[in-house]
Amino acid sequence: MPPEARPLRRNAVWSKLVRRAKRAPLDAWMLWLLVVAGTMVVLVELNSSSISLRKEEHAIPLLKQDRMVSWKAISSGGFSFQPYFEIENKVLERAEPNPFPSNTSHSRVREIVKDANDWFTPQQICQETCCARQVLYSMDHEEHQLLNTMDGLDLADLLLRHKTPPAHLTFPGAWYHPDLLPCLQPGTIIHLNNKYYILEYFWKYIRPKIQVPFVLITSDSDRDSPLQYQGDDFGRYLNDTLLLRWYGTNPKYIMEGSNAAASPKFQPMFLGLSKKYAQAKYLEPYLEINHFQNPFASNNNERQSSPHNGSSNNNSNKEIFDLNWDVFVKFGTKRGDRLVLHRDLCAARNAAVGGRGNPRPHLFLSCNKTARVSPHEIYKQASQYTFGVSPPGLGWDCFRTYELLYLGVIPIVEVRDPESYYFFADLPIVQVPREKRKKALASNAAILQAIQEFWHQESKAPNRKLRAPGWNRLFLAYWRRKILQDAGRKTMHHATDMDTSGKKKKTKREYYMGWKYELLASAVSDATIHDVGYYCARETGCHMEDGAPSSDD
């Protein structure tokens, strides 16, 4: 309809209403007046609320406008990624019912296939003291299983026990017992807690009895992999003829005099989140709300304007970053080097020493050394920064690195040359060399320069790290498939009825095959040992065949 015709139509409608009203009784007129009055009151309230909201926006900018980088439209299907601070209430609603800080993948397995059927015939091989049986485990949930320090135990067929885990943490593998060794099958995946006395026990007492090729995982510790301790270099075992591959956290395999330098057998493995602290408890529901999409893979990742960016620089192609505005600083300071780093980074905003103060006062946690808050509160504020500092913890790798990546914040870490360049090759991470003769990671100027160089280099690269092409490496399914391949196994798919929202839906489910090792009760005289397996703990040393405990670290 042309615009000039619209007033005529509205007038005609009004005239029709008036003619009807003239014929209506007095009660109808009163009803009309009440409706009109109520409508006017609602309009006035809405208008005043809008004015009030605009005033509040002017006085205190909305938090989402504070971010230097906007990770908005996800490239897949126009999905809009929501930062943590925008959906904090939804995250809490889903997280609070969960009483545990973390969970294993095995505790979430939806289907375990033990018996033969029309598409799987498990093998069972028994010796005098034990049996090895093939079992299938569904792994569709592992596409979204966040990494944590227990992953090595989740991935293994045989575990050397360090401590008894809580009852809700279950694993597919069997706890080590010497009577299980005759049943080990080619490609068995073995996990060791990465401590000196456990590694010594394995290579000295267990490995000589293993007769088949195996994959080794060392994790669940802050120690380096392969471990070097008191002049003992476990990297020498990388030349072992039966070792197929060695996966380890906190990689440090190129050192002076190390045999690991020339070995292709070692593969670095991500540390992941803590098993003790409620990190996954909040990060999982946050990512679930966002369908586990990559927060960095945005079509619109241009930096927004900020108080320190623009007129002061004549070169419009050069971005200006500010440590106070752009970098989230929140980490433990018990260690001396961390304390120095925290002091240096936060001096500029500390008014007590002549700093400018906090430019974003509503974000009070960054550089706040004394505040003790939940991970949820930390994530609310960290998600509003572009970068976050993640210095080495007790080991080189740090939980905070993975917290920041899951939040869509770019971590700033210490270089471990050359391991870390390969380790983080396809993830958006700023790597800063530790300066010589300096107790902390680096000076503020060096950190700022590293940020600048990273941003300019990666924002122009065709396959830039800023989009995190290695996002899938932050979930357990990637590591499951990779380690199984090294062990000579493949995952398999089978059409199954999967319950979705109360309805049966035919879909293909992915499974992995694990070896289930079991002792024959008739062959084990010590019932206690049969129940709990062998321990290798700091308090008692390792239970060894000759009865002598191994040396401790």
Descriptive notes:
The protein has 3 domains: 57 residues; 246 residues, no CATH class; 166 residues, Rossmann fold. Helix content is 28%, strand content 16%. The chain is globular, with a radius of gyration of 30 Å. The protein has 14 helices and 19 strands. It starts with 5 loop residues before the first helix and ends in an 11-residue tail after the last strand. The longest helix is centred in the first third of the chain and has 34 residues. Helix 10 links the parallel strand 13 and strand 14. It has a 6-stranded parallel beta sheet, sandwiched between helices. Strands 1, 2, 3, 16 and 17 form a 5-stranded antiparallel beta sheet that branches. It has a 4-stranded parallel beta sheet with strand order 12-13-14-15, sandwiched between helices.
Describe, in short, the structure shown.
The chain is of the alpha/beta class and 553 residues long. It contains 14 helices and 19 strands.
Q: N- to C-terminal separation? A: 86 Å
How does the overall form come out from the CA principal axes?
globular
Beta-strand percent range: 15-25%
Roughly how many Å is the radius of gyration? 30 Å
Number of strands: 19
Helix share of residues? 25-40%
Quote the average pLDDT: 77
Give, in spatial order, the strands making up the sheet with the most strands.
5-4-6-7-10-11
Largest beta-sheet details: 6 strands, parallel
